[in-house]
């Protein structure tokens, strides 16, 4: 479903963030992306939802090159990819419901459809009763759940998460990762960039390790480090 062929990313300042990466991620997989700070994990994630373009190489999603997409085709790609960040990125002046609904409003879904889908997504993340609250009234873990609801409300085929537990305590981190695993069980391909050694070791999922922009390990059921 996601194929990277000889992907290199050099930023305009000359930093080589990814070097000749080739990897295939199949439909329905759960993949951890690990590696030290600066290894290229965020760059990998940003390439997948076309926030960045590779300098060299090819990226196919569902058999189609995402590099050659026309500007008008980018929203179609993004509809199929949910994204979750470390810092939640919620709109502070909007309620939980409105934050999640926003993802569908920009795609011009009908109002009744939005209402239905948002409540399903909020129930899925366990926040059905907090729809009217504002982000600052929620814990960090709850705010991340809202961000996850916002990412999945479009029913994307792929969910990418960049350090989703980076701001959370160990117990909350575990709950958030359990939620991502549950979403994966329903068929969504999930890619999580993380530093969280304990979680990676506990989950026994595929581990792709990057170091200085190179793919240094790809284990079917791996641990954080060898
Ligand atoms: N927009 C950018 N412009 C220039 N250099 C960048 C940019 N984004 C990242 N880099 C550089 O590319 C390299 C890889 O960064 P990246 O953020 O992908 O790594 P990472 O593994 O996600 O690190 P971290 O765990 O600290 O988030 C680093 O040397 C970083 O400084």
UniProtKB/TrEMBL annotation:
InterPro entries: AAA+_ATPase, ABC_transporter-like_ATP-bd, ABC_transporter-like_CS, ABC_transpr_LolD-like, Cell_div_FtsE, P-loop_NTPase
One GO MF term: ATP hydrolysis activity
Membrane topology: Peripheral membrane protein
Keywords, comma-separated and alphabetical: ATP-binding, Cell cycle, Cell division, Cell membrane, Membrane, Nucleotide-binding
Matching SMART domains: AAA (SM00382)
Any single GO CC term annotated in Swiss-Prot or TrEMBL for this entry: plasma membrane
One BP term from GO: cell division
PROSITE patterns (alphabetical): ABC_TRANSPORTER_1 (PS00211), ABC_TRANSPORTER_2 (PS50893)
Domain named ABC transporter: residues: 2-225
Record-linked Pfam families: ABC_tran
Annotated localization: Cell membrane
Keyword RNA-binding: no
Role of this protein: Part of the ABC transporter FtsEX involved in cellular division.
Protein family membership: Belongs to the ABC transporter superfamily.
Subunit: Homodimer. Forms a membrane-associated complex with FtsX.
Name of the protein described by the UniProt record: Cell division ATP-binding protein FtsE
Gene name in the database record: ftsE
